[in-house]
Amino acid sequence: MVVRHYSVNACLAPLCSMHGLAVITVEGIGNMQAGLHPAQERLASAHGSQCGFCTPGFVMSMYTLLRNHPSPSAQQLESAFDGNLCRCTGYRPIIDGYRSFIKVIISIRFSQFCFQETKISQEKVTLYDPTQEPIFPPDLKINQRHLQSQPLKFMSDCITWYRPTSLKELLRLKQQHPDCRMVIGNTEIGIETKFKKQYYPVLVAVTNVAELLVVEYTEEGIRFGSSVTLSTLDNTLKEAVRKMSESKTRIFSAFIEMLQWFAGHQIRNVAALGGNIMTASPISDLNPLLLACGAVLQVVGIDGTVRKIVMDSKFFVGYRQTVVQKSEILVSVLIPFSQENEYFLAFKQANRKEDDISIVNAGLRVLLEKDTSVTDASFAFGGMAPVTVMATKTREGIIGRKWNEELLSNACQLLMEDLPLDPSAQGGLVAFRRSLTLSFFFKFYLSVLKSLHKQVRGNENLDSHYLSSLQPLERSLPRGSQVYEAVQEGQSPDDALHRPLVHQSAYKQASGEAVYLDDIPVSEDLFAAFVFSKKAHACLVSVDATPALGIPGVVDFVSHKDVPGSNVWGVGEEIFASSEVVHQGQVIGVVVAETQVIAQCAATAVKVEYEALDSTITIKEAIKKGSFFPPKHEIKRGDLAAGFTASDHVLEGKVHIEAQEHFYLECHSVLVKPGEDDELEVIATTQWPTGVQECLALALGVLQHKIVVRTKRLGGGFGGKESRSIPVTLPVAVAAKKLKRSIRCTLDRDEDMMMTGTRHPVLGRYKVGFTSNGKILALEVDMYLNAGVSTDKTIGVMDRALFYSDNCYNIANIRTTGHMCRTNLPSSTGFRGFGGPQAMIIAETWMSHVANSLKKPPHEVRVMNFYQEGSFTHFNQVLEQVTLQQCWKDCLNMSQFSERRKEVTLYNSENRWRKRGLAIIPTKFGFSFTKLDMNQGGALVHIYVDGSVLVAHGGVEMGQGLHTKMIQVVTSRVLQIPTTKITILETATNTVPNTTATAASMSSDIYGEAVREACQTLRTRLDSFIHSTGRTGMSWEELIRAAYESRINLSASGFCIIPDIGYDFSTGEGKPFSYFAYGVACSEVEIDCLTGDHVVLRTDIVMDVGKSLNPAIDVGQIEGAFVQGYGLVMLEQYKVQPDGTLLTRGPGTYKIPSLGNIPKVFNVCLLQNSRNPRAVFSSKGIGEPPLFLATSVLQAVQDAVASARQDAGLEPFIILDTPATPDIIRMACQDQFTKEASW
To answer: What DSSP state is assigned to residue 866?
Structure first.
């Protein structure tokens, strides 16, 4: 018996389907007490775990790979994680940790001044020995045949689950339950039942029906049972390709190509070929291929009648409908062999290459005579109609014609007739989708032409400039270097400061032992589910909870009528909508029940009647209606009119930066525990415990000292859990107080995205004046921010945007103005960078616009306008210790910019349909909270009599390594003890009061100084004790015991304020920032001009972090921020309908960067010899500044697009809105195909 291991998504795997299988979770392969599995240890040791919420998923994907392939190849490692997502690390350290399993050696460039560490030493980790893995459970192995052939029936009050094991039994069940749903991997039904609220009372699992699991070679091809998984399909076809001739397996090769982009391993391991056909999705990746190759289906009716169906243009008869009758069951699928002169290719274009649904896909086939005349052809497309369609006119139009340019031209015209796609078609992007069909056919045409001509060189029919378009954009395992200063020689081993320590929770996170809020065991807790508004703006006519209250297990319905204090919090938002709803996803009420499932089900039963009101959704609508929040802030200096008058040239433009969803992997959660005498304990996923505490006190009508808010760790935050944790917590707290019961609530992903708000969308309009050599003389910028329904964090975000509107450029005459648009969307909120990235994207847009208009290299124009040491910003703050020029110089050298600029130019001259771009971009980032009173924080340090140390401070650990850095500060030059003696348990308002939000990259500065001060107080007491007693030479433990016995206070608090800051917008005076950090990134990209796809070939970053407290953590923050910034500028689409309905509600529709999106070569260097006297131990903040550097990718893409446009005879420069997804890139290139595809 062969034991195989499969990784699956636990959230989609029904418990019933586990019968007879061995289930292994991350907790089962290793732990902190018994020892970690190498898959756990190596990821953590390589700094591959930050917030840790995704870590168990990566561990189990690697574990699965190792169990099946103890010595995996690089290719296997690359594909192992295509179903895994991480929002924190940027993926590189995860892959570095696991690369050690394949013993790949990477050459790294060293610096004589810096020390680097890129891979795990085999001597430092547990070697992997597959013989030590747990054996397959003997009982399951002995009884496997019986367990797998045993028919099953599971029943609940509302669902019956059958698992037949023979076709005869399946037909009987189908006859008894004609409306039953057949399930294999649950990848479709699981989504429908969870998110689309579908109900299927009878489910029949066909995973064990022997006749549906057949894999059989025939004379015509390979016949696959309909329950054969996609992984098995893939492996079988690969084996056939290895054994058979190329000409016989071209169809198989196309399926293999498509399958590598079909979902992730976890889905392919359970999803089946038959399910893909019968769900009949119009954007199915396999159905176009099945149609094009003429796959033959075998179906059987409940009466036993067997028939064969050829998949052709008549197979799909309507949306999600096929010619297979309701009374029939799909038994098998025959995928044919290809013929000698038959050519077959698969194409797919999605926003994200890995694990994303198609925008358009295609299966293209042609059969030729020896003279290249077309004998037969079939062209099938997905994403072009409510069904997968075949281009029948195109097929008929080319039959008998020779494979040449005339055929190509005619086929393109016919394709546009076959695939008209109405301008109002669902999904939009009509011109792009139509152009993709032409691009696919053009690529197919060239590929066939290349195959027909073995000697390409000198053949006039195949332009060598076109050949690169046939190669897929290469994606491979990332590699790179991380360069930083070594600790000073002679530093004590116990002094952890400046060392690259692993995140203090990394090993717990890798073993699944780290506790997140939803891991807290349920005792007598009740569960809350929200009733959300389904309207963007409406009056509440009535809210009837009677149907919900009638459901067994429902305890109560809570609304605004139950709020004992104020129903209004913050800047005017309601806890519960009382008479009017102002955005979809607003909380109207809370259903409390005995289980989460009951609560969520009952929440949907609450009947709400609305009277619709006019709504405003977009910035454009808000400007048209004059819908703004006051105030309008402005920063100006110089004489703008004089600046424009003196300018040789003046340009105007606009750029739009779309919203970005935080997509922290841990959704918002809260647990509220009422106590005696109005006391309340709240465990919340918040970056701002005091903010939650303050709002709770007002809502409940109690004093703040009655409320304790705790946070142990967050599974990511990025600003989205600062203020937006409050509207999640308050309704649950009101319910808990009313019922005097502990209540918990964890939002589902779709609820979280619908309710909590995003990064601010911004429309930037600019007017820039400059000289003929590129010196900027005047700049006017208006930024319109979509605030949503309240100002929440918008004033602060707007102010930051105004401060950053110059980026790194010294402009004598400038006016920048911020406008807050009032719309009917959830309140936009803080997000990593806090308005800075949007403003600097606008700045780099006009800077590139200037350079291109002068036909000057953009990097030269940028340097010409740089700030210098002692320059004054447009808000009149002098710049001191400016490291911008050094960062720029180091990045130019590290990236070999000059040489690669020439290489890119040469490449572009030799390739028409594939272009490369190169860009280098700087950033300047100021540190402080713009709200003055937030620039403070406290800490509390206890030393216990055994010498152990407990640290508490007001910062929240959310993956950024804050607690780890604080421990290093404690162990540094102050207490001088090993890190093993120190711990930080949680952040709580009863330990350190009046906490500032963990945000703005200020927590290391504020809490590091507070912890240092507390430790220094203790160190001074201990030194005084030693001096007064003369008792030297004691161990730490002996010293602490002696000090205790002498009644020395072993507890101390510390407090930090950021001095000499503050800015007054009314006068334009003040100093908003304590200090600045600088950074530079150079990125190179390659784009496919025919599809808009792209790959980041290389990124080099030089970042000024001062004297790093922990270089490994800082490098991780740089890489993670960069990849998150890449999502902002290149990938993440937040889609809202005109009525305010959010379309992107989860990972299926909202795509964050995956492993395949990160640079193939990713180098990071921390600037050498940088120091900062205004922060703890000369460090600088790091969480936010690197995010904007991903704009180097956007600018590189713009550079590549300019080359394509130049080849087409167009003006090279074009503004790319963000995110610059494939449709934007493709339609910016413009050529004969885009013209033909446009209406």
So the answer is: B
